[in-house]
Every structure is written in structure tokens, then in C-alpha cells.
Amino acid sequence: MSVAERRGRAGREPSKIPYYVVLSALAFFALAPLLVLVFNSLKSNAEVGRNPLGPPTSPVFENFPTAWAQGNFATTLVNSTILTLGTVVGVCVIAGMAAYAMARLDLPGTDGVLLYLFVASALPFQLFLVPLFFLWNTLTLTNTLFGLVVIYWAIFSPFATLLLRSYLVALPRGFEDAARIDGASEWQVFTRVVLPLSWPGFLTIALVSALGAWNEFFFAVTFIQDDALKPVSTSFLAFQSQFSQDWGLTSAASILIMLPVVVLFLLLQRRFIDGLTAGGLKG
Question: Where in this chain does the entry annotate a coiled-coil region (predicted)?
Fold first, then answer.
């Protein structure tokens, strides 16, 4: 191809300016609410009413220690950490074994179980609040962190199972067949062959369930009444009265709640991408 032909083809390439315009607009709509939240976290309640979108004229940095103390974050952050870790461990165990059984063991009734999981993922769990509350009250699981963790297992496991099963179905069976020929049991195949290959899928469901458990409010405020056991999502209740809401403290509390999630995502993002691009069997 001559130089003139290459120049002509380069001249006919479509402009990338529309793509940058669309991406810039999407970035603006994604980041602008966060920027406004940061602005409002440094304002007094009166200034938020006068200037709800602009930067603060006189930053009030005292909002953060006040929100920390008033929202009892020293206690609620610990409770949410316990709830999140318990949820992640339980969902990974439940979804991992269920997804492996449906993807590899060719069990009868798998299609019916998949249909049930699809339905369970689509239904709002608030429909079961009243019978679930009476059942938990009978089992003395109300007002306990373990009782709330079990509810989160039921909420997040169906979607996690479907997501992980789709990941396992795409994995090649060659390593597993070789392990079985060498005399490995089904549990050894699962723990020593499937897990090293599918840990990016487990990391994905762990992140999804962790974010869900960290941000969940409805069941937390319903099943936990003891202030010493309340998770961090209920700390917002400390900034409202019967007729008003302190939006400056609420915004500062939102920053405090989001910060651990952002740090966790930034720490795991690189490993998640490396896991997705890695191939073969490790170890």
C-alpha cells in the first residue's frame, strides 16, 4: 500500500470526538453528585439550604468529628464489618458448592433449581418481611448479628449462585478430568482444581455481596433494635429529628460510610483484573 493510499484511508476514518463527548458527559453525571456530596459535607445546615450545589464559602470541617460521634460510627462500623465478613464467607461457601454441583455434577432437577433461583432473584425480599419476622422472633434470632447474616445469605446467595455457575460452565473440564484420572475425589477436584481457576468469579460475588451487606438498611433497621448492634447504614437516623434533617452532617456521614468501600475496591481492583487475565492452573 502506497503512502497516498494510507493517507487517504486515514483521512476517511471517523472522528473520535463524539465518543469523547459522550464519555465526558457520562463521567460528569457520575462524578457531579459525588462532588456535590463533598461540598455539602463541608457546609452548615443553613448554608446547604442557601447553596445546595455550589462549593462551601466557609468550610465546616467539624462536621466529620461531629457526625462520627453523633452517628456512633465507632460501634456501627465494627458491626457492619462483622456483618459484611459473615455475609461474604457464607455466600461464597453456599454459592460455590451450589454452582459447582449444578455446573459439573449433572444432577437431576438442575433446570428446576435454576428456575427457582431466577425467581428468587427477581422477587423483592420485602414481601417475606412479616412471616420472616415472626419466624426469627420464635427462633430468638431477632436483635442478633447472626440472625441478620443468615437473612443476607438468603438474599444474596441466589444471584451469586447464578453468576458463579455461569463462570464455572465456561471453564474447560480438562484439568478436572485429569485430576479424576489421577484418583482425586470430587472434593479435591473442587478445592484444588476448580477454586484456583475460578477465584475471579468468587471475588466478584464476594464484592457484590459485601457491597450489598454494607449498604443494606431495610432488614437491618427492622431486625436490630439494640443500639450496640446496629450497622453503619442506620447511622443516618441520628441526623434527623421529627421535622428536620441536618444535611451537612448527613453528607459527612455519607463520606465516612463510602470511604471504606472505595478503599476496598481500589485495593482489590488490580488483583481482580489480574485474576481475569491469568490463565492456567496455579500452584
Answer: none
Nearest to 190 by CA among 207, 210, 175, 205: 175
* Domains of the chain, residue spans: 3-50, 72-239
pLDDT tens-digit readout, 213-223: 999 999 999 99
CATH number assigned to the domain with residue range 72-239, chosen from the 4 options 3.90.400.10, 1.10.3720.10, 3.20.20.140, 3.40.140.10: 1.10.3720.10
Contact status, residue 175 vs residue 192, Cβ threshold 8 Å: no
CB 86 within 8 A of CB 145: yes
Burial 260-279 (b: 16+ CB within 10 A, else e): eeeeeeeeeeeebeebeeee
Q: How far apart are CA 97 and CA 104, in angstroms?
A: 10
H helices within 71-194, ranges in order? 73-104, 110-122, 129-138, 145-169, 174-181, 186-189
Length of the chain: 283
